[in-house]
Amino acid sequence: xxxxxxxxxxxxxxxxxxxxxxxxxxxxxxxxxxxxxxxxxxxxxxxxxxxxxxxxxxxxxxxxxxxxxxxxxxxxxxxxxxxxxxxxxxxxxxxxxxxxxxxxxxxxxxxxxxxxx
Length: 117
Known about the structure:
0% of the residues lie in helices and 53% in strands.
């Protein structure tokens, strides 16, 4: 129900835009988020957006460089990543949870982002 895409190899300082296409249900009462997991590290939160209203929240490590947005007509959430650093290298996952819930119930399959120095 969540399909992530847009990863790739980019040089440090470059940009990528990830997409997360949602299907199979209405996500209007959900918050959508991006997480990432680097090799040997735990999965970490990157950014979140409420499907309704569009309020956003970012991890400190990406604030000012990454922008999360959504396109209601396309049922798609985006993560625009600018000024990429080698430490941004990870598999990026999109996820969804009910706005009032604690747990992310739906997860995409992940897309690899590699930033070379």
